[in-house]
Structures are given as C-alpha cells and as structure tokens.
Design goal:
Belongs to the KIN17 family. With 232 residues, the protein is mainly α. Helices cover 71% and strands 8% of the residues. The chain has 2 domains: 142 residues, Arc Repressor Mutant, subunit A, CATH 1.10.10; 65 residues. Strands 3-5-4 form a 3-stranded antiparallel beta sheet. A hairpin with a 4-residue loop joins β1 and β2. α4 packs across α5 and α5 crosses α6. The relative contact order is 0.06. The chain binds zinc ion.
Length: 232
C-alpha cells in the first residue's frame, strides 16, 4: 500500500476497526504483550513472566512511569511535528495515527489516563497550543527550534519596522496638513485686510505721477541751461 494511502483518515479508521480499539486496554506495556480481551489480560497478569516484570516495575515504579511517559510524549510530538508541523489539528486524529503503529508505546503505561489529560499537558508545557471545541480537542505544535525562533524574530522585526514606516508616513502627512492649514490661514489674513495693498498702490501711483511731473521739469531745466549757453 502506498504511504499516503496508508495515512489517510479512512485507511486509519479501517485499520482501527480491523484491530479493535478495545484491544488497547488489554495491552501490557511492561511485557509488551497484547491480550485479546479482559479475560486474556487477567490470565496474563497471573503469569509468572508478568509477575516478574511487575516486581521490576514496583521496585522503581516512578522510573518506569517517567520513562514510558517521556517516550510516549516524544513519539507523539515527533509524529505531530513531522506530519502537521505548526498546523492546527484534531488531537484524536494524531492519536489515531500514533496508535496505528503496532509498536507504539501505550498510553495506559504513562502517567496520563486520557488523551484529554495528555493534551492538557502539551498545553501546560508550551509544546502545543491547545483548544477545546465541540469536535474535541485541537492541538497546534509550537516550533521552538532555534531556526524557527530566528525566523519569528525576523518577522517581528519586519513588522516593527513597517509600523515605524507607517508612523513616519503619518507624521509626514500631519506635517503637510499643518503646513497647508498655516498657508490657508496666512492667505485669508491677507484677503481680510486689503486696505494696505490699495494704499501701497496709491503710493506707487503718486510716485509715478511725481516722477512724471519732475521729468518735464528737469527737461525744462536742461532747456533753460541749454538756452542759457548761447545767451552768454
Ligand atoms: Zn505483563
């Protein structure tokens, strides 16, 4: 079967149906043994090999629990990040894919008693953004790798600089508006007081008149001087 077909939700659902989800409950992680049903599981727990394993477990229960929990978490997050990266996805979809691997570490061997509890842990630890909907829990992996953080920082820097650009542009526009207002105010002041302008014009006219009257006078003077020369 091609890999893509193998991972489609339908293919996964079919495999789960074929295998029977109930079986997950009758799996012994310590012995890595799958039992068919409750009765089979009971029989297994009575077996000498299981008792030996349980003795080991009880001697360092927290160590086993921690190791199983860590492995479960690592494998689950590995699947989540590789398959979905930072896309938001239904937690149960990822879980179904996770358990479709025959060799997966079973959740009943971890400190989490339900997927909801595990999802809450992902959210608390900042491993994923989690949110509950009527369709169940959704998870979104948070990429904390140095490369992703650097990329994030670059995006934020760019956003900041574009905000700076916007503010600079806004300031320029405000300055232009202020300048335009000032100019309008100056113009209206000039229009409101037309008298000085008229007075100035009158003054100029008078000067011109004066010049006009003076010039002929000067010409007369010259004429007089000229006429005076032959007279002497
Ligand atoms: Zn066992």
């Amino acid at each position: 079967m091609p890999k893509d077909g193998f991972l489609t939700p339908k293919a996964i659902a079919n495999r789960i149906k074929a295998k029977g989800l109930q079986k997950l409950r009758w799996y012994c992680q310590m012995c890595e043994k799958q039992c068919r049903d409750e009765n089979g599981f009971k029989c297994h727990t009575m077996s000498e090999s299981h008792q030996r394993q349980m003795l080991l477990f009880s001697q360092s229960a927290s160590k086993y629990l921690d190791n199983f929990s860590r492995e479960f978490l690592n494998e689950f997050v590995k699947l989540l990040s590789r398959r979905y990266n930072t896309r938001r996805v239904q937690a149960n979809v990822v879980y179904q894919e996770y358990i479709s691997d025959r060799t997966h570490l079973h959740m009943n061997a971890t400190k989490w008693t339900s997927l909801t509890e595990f999802v809450a842990h992902l959210g608390r630890e900042g491993i994923a953004t989690v949110d509950e909907t009527p369709k169940g829990w959704f998870i979104q992996w948070i990429d904390n790798s140095p490369r992703a953080l650097a990329r994030q920082a670059a995006i934020q820097k760019k956003e900041r600089s574009s905000v700076d650009d916007e503010q600079r542009e806004k300031r320029l526009i405000e300055e232009q508006i202020a300048r335009a207002k000032q100019q309008t105010a100056e113009q209206s002041t000039e229009e409101q007081t037309p008298t000085p302008t008229e007075l100035k014009r009158d003054g100029t006219d008078e000067k011109i008149k004066l010049n006009l009257t003076l010039k002929p006078a000067a010409a007369e003077d010259t004429a007089e001087t000229k006429s005076a020369v032959p007279a002497s």
